[in-house]
Amino acid sequence: MARYAAFLRAINVGGHTVKMDVLKKHFEDLGFSEVETFIASGNVVFSSASKNLSDLEKKIEVLLNKSLGYEVATFIRTAAELPKVAAYPAFKPAELKNAKAYNVAFVKNPLDKTASEKLMSLENKIDRFRIHGREIYWLCAERQSDSKFSNKVLEKTIGQNATIRGLATVEKMAAKYS
Q1: Which domain holds residue 155?
Q2: Residue 42 belongs to domain with CATH number
Q3: Are residues 92 and 142 in the same domain?
Q4: Is residue 59 a contact partner of residue 67, using CB atoms and an 8 Å limit?
Q5: 72-87 CB burial, b ≥16 within 10 A, e <16
Q6: Which residues are 118's β-sheet partners?
């Protein structure tokens, strides 16, 4: 059995509220084992015999859409990938020192050249980005509320679904589940 972390978009944001015990039950209904939720923002860790991430994502998305009544984009990383995502040195320590927020966005597919260029064109004195594989690191020099960047802007810019987590959350998950 392989261990996975699923990062779900649109859980307990934008007026959608899902209790974590209900979310856990949905994952168990799919046949997954060792299911745990991590904070109430759509982070689910589980075990499965399947090795096909795309199939797992689709399976979860179909069930959650049917059960919750709206689309829930799902982004899965393996237990081995999680610490690499958390530890990736996207920015230099000096850049991180004065930042007010540091986030990572999960996407299903690495960005192509056009999407990468579009994203990088959004950099400004508040927002900086680094792209690495299927993750986008976002460093915010001011409070996020002062930024014009958001998950919606990200998705429109890169042309695919994404979900954003604070890097501290990803680090905690990596420490607990890897």
Answers
A1: 83-177
A2: 3.30.70.1280
A3: yes
A4: no
A5: bbbbbbebebbbebbe
A6: none
What do you get for the CA distance between the two ends of the chain, in Å?
14
SS3 content of the chain, % helix, strand, coil (to 5): 40, 25, 35
Tens digit of each residue's pLDDT (9 = 90 or more) over 144-177? 988 999 999 999 999 999 999 999 999 999 999 9
Query: Rounded to a whole number, what is the largest CA-CA distance in the chain?
Result: 47
| Pair 18, 94 in one domain | no
Sign of the torsion formed by the C-alpha atoms of 16, 22, 24 and 25? negative
Q: Specify the pTM.
A: 0.95
Task: Tell the residue number behind the tokens 């974590």, with chain if given.
Answer: 20
Q: What's the full length of the chain, in residues? A: 178
Q: Element (H or E) spanning 136, and its range? A: strand 135-140
Alpha carbons 107 and 126: distance in angstroms, whole number: 22
Sign of CA dihedral 158, 161, 166, 170: negative
Amino acid identity, position 107: V
Instruction: Say if residue 106 is in the same domain as residue 141.
Output: yes
Total domains, the chain: 2
Question: Quick one: average pLDDT of 36-57?
Answer: 94
Domain boundary among 35, 53, 79: 79
Cα 142 to Cα 108, 127, 147, distances in angstroms: 28, 8, 7
CB 174 within 8 Å of CB 86: yes
